[in-house]
Queue: 4 jobs
Job 1
Amino acid sequence: MSVNIVLDNVSLKFRIYKNPNPNLKETFVNLVTRKRHLDDVMEFYALKNINAEFNPGDRVGIIGLNGAGKSTLLKTIAGIYPPHQGVIKITGSVTPMIELGAGFDMELSGRKNIYLNGAILGFSKEAMRQREKEIIDFSELNEFIDLPVKYFSSGMFSRLAFSIAVISDPEILIVDEILAAGDAHFVHKATDRMRHLFKNSQIVLFVSHSLEQVEALCNRVLIMNKGEVVAEGDAAEMIRFYKETIAQ
């Protein structure tokens, strides 16, 4: 089966409440009138009219300033945010590496969280049992793995979350800023593992503020600004354009 992602005129709106915690009087008035004042609510487009297609062999870097919509685009493709307008068509299985460790139970041990996160990723208990040693060895947390993760340092937490996330070779890989987890030694090892995943995945979408990583790992780049794709093309050419016109 050939994998494919098509975004057809995709838009996503977010709503901001200027007073998200009204006092008792304001709450009562809102209940009686059954409405909020229009000026208490602001809507904005986090994504606006996105049209794109990704095919096998695409290693796509998505770059832009903070707030440009990069991570929101990945979360929309991953199904975390449903678009308000347009259609996303995906052929193939998607493995999102976004906000690693978000599914951890802080009261459980590192070992139990391996199985918990494996279940979230769709793996059976037996499949995770076969991968348990590999995950622990890669994370280098052997002597700490039976401690509750609430006692882990941020580096230990990141290492375990990353080690769980990279246990399989996905068809479509979605990656958001995860190559800086842990110390220099682990970052080097994690980068090697990501290169393996990039090589073996059919489609990769990669958000990063590191233009060096994007240029090294990607063959195509989308530039986003204020929720829109403003340019796309060859990685080296787009990065040069971004430096000269946007990131000044």
Job 2
Amino acid sequence: MLWAGQFGIAGGEALEETPWVGAFPDPRPSSEEPSDLYLIVEPALPGSAEFCGELKEAVGRVFHREKVSLTGGLLKALRAAHEHLRDWNERSLKEHRVAAGLSCLAVQDSRGYLAQVGPARAAVYRRGSLTTFRPELPDALEPLGLQAEFWPDFQRVELDAGARLLLLSPALFDAVSAQELAADLALPEEDVLPALYRRARDLPDCGALLLAAIEDGRLAVPS
């Protein structure tokens, strides 16, 4: 089973719903191979924050509509987001251009695929070891909306029992040390996000989404 939780801060206020954090369960959970999508959006230029909520919803909608495979669905969803931002930028003055980075995780049972376009951060904690992820491919370094072409940086992640996967805003990632992040992720799953929030509460805008693998099975989202 996967335990999922999230928090977001917007304008210095902790809110249940923010433009940065998205969770999109499969709209057909009874299908043969249901899959879910989780993401963090990061505004990359001044004025981009107001587009993040719309972008988040578009990525979730396209992923579930177009997915034939997890990676294929991720690629189509990110391409749609990229074209949306590019269309706006082509019709706007240079100083009004917008751009965003994303970390997107598609999950099916215990198998996950992480797709990132900068700026983006993620971390996996397993058996006392912390691994962090950021885009490294040249075509994934620039945010969506600016370049003619892009290609997300893909990573396969196994969410076996005891593993924790965290999507987080770059500002939050930069605000904590690797030792602090590992210590927080080693806590019981229900204590991880409160610990991270205490480190993040002075940030004006950020978010985090945690998946913790407890045992085999479908997603369980706490109320």
Job 3
Amino acid sequence: MAKRTAMKNRSKKKSMKRKSGNGATRRPARGVAPRRASKSASSRRAPSRRSNGSAPRPAKIREGVITHTELASTDPMATREWCEAVLGWEFGEAMPSSAGPYHMWRFGIGTGGGIRSTNPPEPPGSLPYCEVKDIKTTYANAVAAGATPMMPPEALPGSMGWIAIVTAPGGVPIGFWSMGK
């Protein structure tokens, strides 16, 4: 009888032990329920890619964060090829625009950008777009605070949100992007 009780106790102790991530076993503290195992890395899914190569946008507004950088180039294809070769950027299929193909890249952290042709007399350069909650209010506030209007809020094709551009004091162009008006 004593032998049977000792075997039951050993069996209970084994069932209370659990493996930790490094393969060692340990018992949970008395009165603490064992944690459930989290999903394994292989069962977690990476965010799906959109057909244009961009990652889904985060649901939370990241007010003021530069989420898109636009490169204006005299040779967009050469700029794209250089970015691929030197920086390892991956581009989706170019999107048609009134100024020609728009080459977009997206990083896994939800930021990215695009390469387009310059609009003469515009010199080659870059334009950061900051994410904002309300593009019309932000645009109006920027102008009231001394910015010069460049492009009022305008919807992007394909339900890609809204953009607007101002020139901040000192001559620096800054873009705004918002998913909604």
Job 4
Amino acid sequence: MELHAPRGDAAARRFARRLGLRRHTLAMPDHIVPLERFHEARRVLDGRIDRTPILSSSTAARVLAAQGIRVADGRVYAKAEHLQKTGAFKIRGALNKLGALTDSERAAGVITLSAGNHAQGVALAAHEAGVHAVVMMPAGAVRSKVDACLGYGAEVILFGQDVGETWMHMEEVQDERGLTFVPPFDDPWIIAGQGTVGLEILDDLPDVDVVVAGIGGGALCSGTAAAIKETQPGVRVYGVEPVTSNSMSLAMERGEAVRIQPVSVADGLNSPFAGEWTLAMTRRYVDGIVLLDDAGILAGVRFALERMKQLVEPAGAAALAAVLFGYIPIHDGERVCVIFSGGNVDRARLGELLAGAAPLEVPAAE
């Protein structure tokens, strides 16, 4: 995989310009979203999204017990954002961002790009606001995600073999039409919206010790971590990346964004680079990032389906998989919650996904 640092990279500079964050940077010069923004986002979302439940699995706890770790309550908890509107947490940030646009920005119409979940969130948020939305997705995007965007009334443009190629073409379309860009992750309103997941986890699991989320662009993980740790500093929050889509961990190592060509079965985690905001937020609030291969991630999909009766997409199951395989530091007696961040699975590929799962030994109940 060829890696390029973004300094001097024209695409990275264009991306930064298109965020249009000059006025936000003045208010938050360190690129840290303050706690009050998360509470403001929660008020914006009140009554407009589903309050997703906290599920649990005693079988997952048995897997950990076989590794010598006995978690609190004899179960691992899971925040069920795969049951959210559009099938993923992304609607949170999209609604919050659309609500922050000016009248002229809305009148121009909006454009975004995504492997699919953010696209659906923007499509629905724009539909509710009466705003025309153009969503750009890779040519191989999951068909159900494409159909959902069309169903919400968005204009869908499929282009490129990966999100990086899609991004370049999106800039051309935006310039030609004068559309307003809604970033998929690197934006304080997006981060604040996604971080409301963390506030809800604290409501339902006030004694939580460890929270785990997948990292793509980083808005969910860093936003959730900030909302939780600014409220309860003792909670530890970990992120999970695919080994072949590790833009955030590379950025953490080098102290700056690194452009990659992400390739993983967990398409929702395939970010071509970490953003300025999400990198700063991750550095401050996330306790660590672990890397997991595709087979391991798919083991999480299989476990969720077979043992928890939940259909969770690969990106959404990465956090659970990392816990089950022992990648997350957990101490005896700690209460653990993973985030099922999305459930948009291509049903035509479900058999293939399950067959690709790494073996995971599950002890019998005593």
